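Subject line: Sequence and fold of a protein, written as structure tokens
Area: Proteins and the way their chains fold up in space.
Start of record: The labelled sequence and token lines come straight after this line.
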Amino acid sequence: MPWEASIAAQLAETREVDVIVPAPGHPVVRAPIWIVAVDGDLYVRSWKGEAGRWYRRAHRYGIGSIAAAGTEQPVRFVPVAEPGLAPRISQAYLDKYGDSSYSRAMTRPPAADTTMRVEPAS
């Protein structure tokens, strides 16, 4: 299911979103993360790699929400394993967040190994 264009644009332009990820029998995890767009799709990565609690839950359960600008969007998290897409996502991080040690960290392991596409939940 594709994003509504206005929502995708708003999320793509937002500097930081909150990712909200539930897990059965545990409190919800909420964490601020960066989000980028490539070809109209939205992508996130875990700065801590697989050590990121929100990432482990999103990867395991595949559902959650993204909150930004006073709205919350239910989403599905889909792992990305397309090798040709990874460099474009990395470049999107550098283009959006500038050339800093933080943005460069998002372009290489362990963060780059945790790339997930964020899709609207149906």
Q: What stands out?
A: The chain has four helices and seven strands. The helical segments are 5-13, 53-61, 86-97, 101-105. Strands lie at 17-23, 26-33, 35-38, 41-44, 63-68, 71-79, 116-120. The first strand starts at residue 17 and ends at 23.
